[in-house]
């Protein structure tokens, strides 16, 4: 076959494939709009049957989790589950915005990993608002300024975020969901940075800790300056020729920076877990977690009394943390996560027994496990 004949055959085959893609694109667009129309009908039904003065709830975390799980279970590729889930999350976000845009506060400023977690969970059609502190996120949700908040709770390398746990001690908000975000740290520079003159590196204290070994190897003499957020670090280096920042890809995009070195975290499986907080309890989704806060009486065997009921009724504990109580010296509060929903009989029995030996028991929320 001559070169011209080969080129002609190639163009003919590509033409057929592109025609098929164009036809499928039209079908996809039509189906997306059909789905959006059904979402609008859902909103109409909710309005129709809402009681006078009752606030209509549009966002249903358990329903979204069920949809994503079903899509991934039936996924035959070639797209990976995570990519397919991301696409459907955005589709649900756009459809939900037709009913009522979801308003979300997150620990800011813009460009933080918490904003990335908020967008991963709620999609880009949500209305997001950055807040300067974790306590401010709680207050915005409590005041009804926004419907939901996103706050970090633990990192796989550096452990629990104490400010988040402390806010639950005084807040009446519920945990409505969780997000697990793979954390990639990058060394960012600006257009004025002199590569051979970097003597200062800005980042959040946890990010600096997550990259300690890498920094020891590549910038052992550089001053490490902890700031309130990685986004603040990214902002600072815009006008400093001798500085760099450690932050995520979103911060690089937000502030027009270059990623000089990528994925510099010391642990390759570095990830952070975030909590979604809101005012409403979440029904069971079929694969859930529950978080509680327990204050125990100061007496011998108190810890055993706390943990034993979970073993007795077959409830799997996934995390136990302690924090100093704000009500007494040398008094502690336990934060416990476990598999299951408060509507399950085994969970009810375990919590009833814990309640009998605790001085205080607060259910922070039952919510769907993170979907990827």
From TrEMBL:
Residues 14-48 form a coiled coil. The keyword Ribosomal protein does not apply. It comes from the Bacteria. It is found in: Cytoplasm. GO terms for cellular component: cytoplasm. Residues 291-366 form the ACT domain. GO terms for biological process: chorismate metabolic process; L-phenylalanine biosynthetic process. Its EC number is 4.2.1.51, 5.4.99.5. PROSITE patterns: ACT, CHORISMATE_MUT_2, PREPHENATE_DEHYDR_1, PREPHENATE_DEHYDR_2, PREPHENATE_DEHYDR_3. The record marks 272 as: Essential for prephenate dehydratase activity. Keywords: Amino-acid biosynthesis, Aromatic amino acid biosynthesis, Coiled coil, Cytoplasm, Isomerase, Lyase, Multifunctional enzyme, Phenylalanine biosynthesis. CDD domains: ACT_CM-PDT (cd04905), PBP2_PDT_1 (cd13630). Pfam families: ACT, CM_2, PDT. Residues 103-279 form the Prephenate dehydratase domain. The keyword Amino-acid biosynthesis applies. Its main location: cytoplasm. It catalyses: prephenate + H(+) = 3-phenylpyruvate + CO2 + H2O; chorismate = prephenate. One of its GO terms (molecular function) is chorismate mutase activity. Pathway: Metabolic intermediate biosynthesis; prephenate biosynthesis; prephenate from chorismate: step 1/1; Amino-acid biosynthesis; L-phenylalanine biosynthesis; phenylpyruvate from prephenate: step 1/1. InterPro entries: ACT-like_dom_sf (IPR045865), ACT_dom (IPR002912), Chor_mutase/pphenate_deHydtase (IPR008242), Chorismate_II_sf (IPR036263), CM_dom_sf (IPR036979), CM_II_prokaryot (IPR002701), G/b/e-P-prot_chorismate_mutase (IPR010957), Preph_deHydtase (IPR001086). Residues 8-103 form the Chorismate mutase domain. PANTHER family: PREPHENATE DEHYDRATASE P PROTEIN, PREPHENATE DEHYDRATASE-RELATED. Catalyzes the Claisen rearrangement of chorismate to prephenate and the decarboxylation/dehydration of prephenate to phenylpyruvate. This is Bifunctional chorismate mutase/prephenate dehydratase. The lineage of its organism: Bacteria, Pseudomonadati, Pseudomonadota, Gammaproteobacteria, Alteromonadales.
């Amino acid at each position: 076959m001559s070169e011209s004949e080969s080129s002609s055959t190639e163009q003919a085959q590509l033409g057929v494939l592109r025609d098929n893609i164009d036809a499928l694109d039209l079908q996809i667009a039509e189906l997306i709009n059909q789905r959006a129309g059904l979402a609008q009908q859902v909103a109409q039904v909710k309005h129709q049957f809402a009681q006078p003065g009752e606030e209509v709830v549009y966002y249903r975390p358990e329903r979204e989790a069920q949809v994503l799980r079903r899509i991934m279970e039936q996924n035959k590729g070639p797209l990976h589950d995570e990519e397919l889930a991301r696409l459907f999350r955005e589709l649900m976000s756009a459809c939900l915005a037709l009913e009522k845009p979801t308003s979300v506060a997150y620990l800011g400023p813009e460009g933080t990993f918490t904003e990335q977690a908020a967008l991963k969970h709620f999609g880009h059609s949500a209305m997001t608002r950055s807040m300067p502190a974790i306590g401010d996120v709680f207050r915005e949700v409590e005041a009804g300024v926004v419907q939901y908040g996103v706050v970090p709770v633990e990192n796989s390398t550096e452990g629990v975020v104490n400010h988040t746990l402390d806010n639950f001690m005084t807040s009446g908000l519920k945990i409505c969901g969780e997000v697990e975000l793979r954390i990639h740290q990058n060394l960012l520079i600006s257009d004025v940075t002199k590569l051979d003159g970097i003597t200062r590196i800005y980042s959040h204290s946890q990010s600096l800790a997550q990259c300690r070994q890498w920094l020891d190897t590549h910038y052992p003499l550089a001053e490490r300056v902890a700031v309130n957020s990685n986004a603040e670090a990214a902002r600072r280096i815009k006008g400093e020729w001798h500085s760099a920042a450690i932050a995520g890809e979103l911060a690089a995009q937000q502030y027009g920076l270059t990623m000089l070195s990528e994925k510099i975290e010391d642990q390759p499986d570095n990830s952070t877990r975030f909590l979604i907080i809101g005012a409403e309890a979440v029904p069971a989704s079929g694969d859930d977690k529950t978080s509680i806060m327990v204050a125990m009486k100061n007496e011998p065997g108190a810890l055993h009394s706390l943990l034993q009921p979970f073993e007795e009724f077959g409830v799997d504990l996934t995390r136990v943390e302690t924090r100093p109580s704000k009500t007494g010296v040398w008094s502690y509060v336990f934060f416990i996560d476990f598999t299951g929903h408060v509507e399950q009989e085994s969970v009810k029995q375990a919590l009833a027994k814990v309640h009998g030996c605790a001085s205080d028991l607060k259910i922070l929320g039952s919510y769907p496990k993170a979907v990827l």
